[in-house]
Every structure is written in structure tokens, then in C-alpha cells.
Design brief:
With about 350 residues, this protein is an alpha+beta fold. The protein has ten helices and 14 strands. Helix content is about 30%, strand content about 25%. InterPro entries: C45_proenzyme-like, Peptidase_C45, Peptidase_C45_hydrolase.
């Protein structure tokens, strides 16, 4: 299994501390081998980083408290933990990839599935965290060491599902760091609340959010960049890689890697062939597809973006339940959770 399942409970600071302690044994070695960390260190003490901190504290004080707790648990300076969690706001390209697919079945069931692609060093070194909070719905999320949960794949106890795809935006803009924004979405009780947060808060970096919710027939594709947020309702099927494809986001400068272009073309071709009865098996097959030189399932040691698939998640969304299945490059799920209950 390429990840471990861990349950955490408490208030904002306590859960942050627990997340930090979970990552502490690995964090120093992880950062030492990371080219992303090398690129980030010159930003220490920069006025722009201080501005991101100010806006985060003002807009999302409870998420900031979690970040402070994480720094305590990691035994790292808060500035360095903030720096790591702002990597996509400061650098134009990072080793965070991913492919997401979504489908509305003919029986009304909604499906969202996602490949979590990241630093190959992290394979076998990540966690699936199940967090119970005192003053929010609580959530289940894939957790990178030292990174706030939410910017990968996750769902909360209110039935809100979110998967995130990295966007490589060419501009830097003061605002709320994108990873803190993604974490805040997992505190939302409804799709409308999540959309309002994405539209109303000032953005620093850029992400693509695929969103769904128990009891809501909609699936949403949200491309978010500094000063821009495009929210589109998904029809019956959809695929998204690591660059913006919404027509109204065409004016935002971005980097499109060869891998992202190849995966976008391939996933669009796959989902165009889906029928109304498609379910978990087809979603998994799409994300485990290995066709082409730069495939959707990324296992190459010389991947041009320095990314490999670390886990695959399939969410089945009904009227009153959300079922999460997590896979590790095989057809049998390692973990199956009813996210809206407390039972693992």
C-alpha cells in the first residue's frame, strides 16, 4: 500500500499539531531531496510571502491556526511551513500533477475519480487522514507530509467531494494561498458555499477543483486563478489534467507541459466513449490507462514533470452517502470508506 490510514480528532490547533507530528520523521529528508524546496528557499523573508501570510490570516483565520499547529508538530519555523504550503503561489511550476474525471450515471449516481500525481520520493510515504474537527464537518483527505490536506483528493462529513489538479500559472498575485483555499473548501457544507468561497476570496495561485456533493445532482468544474474563477457545470462526463481548458480562462497565462497536454487529450478521448451505465470500473480503467509515451497512469522514473501516480481515488456520490475507494495501481481497492459515517 502506498499510504497509511490515520484518524485524528480535536480543535484546529490540535489537528494541525497531529498532522505535523505525523510528517515530522520524514520532513527533513523529504525537503533535502526536493528541488522544489531548493527553489523556494530564496523566498524566505520576502515581502510577497509576508503579504500572502497577512491575507491568509485575515481571510481564513481557522485554517491559519491549523498551519500554526502543523508547524508546532513538525518543529519547524512557521515561515518555512508557510513557504512550503505556498509553493504553487511562488513558483510557476511544481511537482504536483494529477488527472481527474467525473461522470453522471443514468441512475442519478455521480462519480468523481482522481489520480494523485506527485514527487516519486513520496510513494509509500503519504497518508490518508480521517480528521474529526470540533467546529466543522471533518474530512477524509490524502495527505502529503507538511502540506495542509485538501489540495489532493478529499471529502467531508457533510458529503462534499473535492479533487484538485495543479495549474501552472505564469503570474504571481497577492491573495490567499491556493492550498489554504483548497483546505477551506473542505469546511463547506454545500456546493454553493464552496463556489462562493472560490469566487469571493482573493486568489494567489491557481487550481482546478472538481466538486460534487451528496444530495446535489450537480458536478462542477472550477478553474481558479488570480483575479479569475470559472465555474462550469459538468454535463454527463468530463476529464481534466493540469492546464486550464475553460474558454473564458483563455486570457490567463499558463504553462502547459507535454504530459498535461497528452493526458488531457487522452482522457477526453476516453470519456467521450463512456455510456450512461459507466461506474467505478470504467473510472478506474481510465485513470490506470497506460497508452502513449506520456500516459495517464504515471510510473516512469524519468517522467518529464518529475511526477508519479501515488494513489487513485474513486468517489461514488449518492443522495445520502459518499463512498471513497482508494487504489494503489491495481484493480482492488486498498481502502473503502463511507465518508459520511464514522465507520472505516
Amino acid at each position: 500500500m502506498a499510504y497509511k490510514y490515520v484518524r485524528i480528532a480535536g480543535n484546529r490547533r490540535q489537528t494541525g499539531v497531529a498532522l505535523g507530528k505525523l510528517a515530522r520523521p520524514l520532513m527533513s529528508t523529504y525537503l533535502e531531496q526536493s528541488r522544489t524546496w531548493d527553489a523556494l528557499r530564496p523566498w524566505r523573508g520576502h515581502a510577497f510571502l509576508n503579504e500572502l501570510a497577512r491575507q491568509a490570516q485575515q481571510a481564513l483565520p481557522e485554517i491559519w491556526e491549523e498551519l500554526e499547529g502543523m508547524a508546532e508538530g513538525l518543529r519547524m519555523p512557521l515561515e518555512d511551513v508557510l513557504l512550503w504550503n505556498c509553493r504553487g503561489d511562488l513558483l510557476h511550476s511544481t511537482t504536483d500533477g494529477c488527472t481527474s474525471v467525473a461522470m453522471k450515471a443514468s441512475d442519478g449516481t455521480r462519480w468523481i475519480a482522481h489520480n494523485e500525481d506527485g514527487d516519486p520520493y513520496l510513494r509509500g510515504r503519504c497518508h490518508l487522514v480521517d480528521v474529526a474537527l470540533d467546529n466543522a464537518p471533518g474530512y477524509v483527505s490524502f495527505y502529503y507530509p507538511g502540506s495542509l490536506p485538501g489540495h489532493t483528493f478529499g471529502a467531508n462529513r457533510a458529503g462534499l467531494v473535492q479533487t484538485i489538479n495543479n495549474l501552472r500559472i505564469r503570474q504571481r498575485h497577492p491573495g490567499v494561498p491556493r492550498m489554504l483555499m483548497a483546505r477551506a473548501v473542505l469546511d463547506c457544507a454545500t456546493l454553493d458555499e464552496a463556489v462562493a468561497k472560490l469566487r469571493d476570496l482573493p486568489h494567489s495561485g491557481g487550481f482546478h477543483h472538481t466538486l460534487g456533493a451528496a444530495g446535489d445532482p450537480r458536478l462542477l468544474s472550477a478553474e481558479v486563478a488570480p483575479g479569475e474563477a470559472s465555474i462550469q457545470e459538468i454535463g454527463t462526463r468530463y476529464g481534466h489534467a493540469n492546464h486550464m481548458v475553460h474558454a473564458d480562462m483563455g486570457g490567463v497565462a499558463q504553462i502547459i507541459t507535454d504530459s498535461s497536454r497528452a493526458r488531457q487529450n487522452r482522457i477526453e478521448g476516453i470519456v467521450d466513449g463512456w455510456s450512461g451505465g459507466t461506474g467505478s470500473a470504467a473510472m478506474l480503467a481510465a485513470l490506470h490507462d497506460t497508452e502513449g509515451g506520456l500516459p495517464i497512469l504515471r510510473t516512469s522514473p524519468d517522467d518529464p514533470d518529475d511526477e508519479n501516480t501515488l494513489a487513485t481515488a474513486v468517489f461514488e456520490i449518492g443522495d445520502e452517502e459518499v463512498t471513497l475507494r482508494v487504489y494503489d495501481r491495481k484493480n482492488k481497492a486498498d481502502i473503502v470508506l463511507d465518508v459520511m459515517s464514522d465507520a472505516p
